[in-house]
Amino acid sequence: MESLYLLVPLSLVLIGLLVWILNWSIKSGQFDDLDGPGEAILMDDDTPKTK
To answer: Can you tell me the distance from the alpha carbon of 41 to that of 16, in angstroms, rounded to the nearest whole number?
Structure first.
């Protein structure tokens, strides 16, 4: 029973931290372009450079 006095506030702090990190990542534009990096590797130019 005594462990609940420690684990409940600790879990609430952890949930608050995770919500803050998610909110920060959404506002900073981390999820704006999800398809671009995956398609950029397909659009790579495979021709060798001439000297």
So the answer is: 36
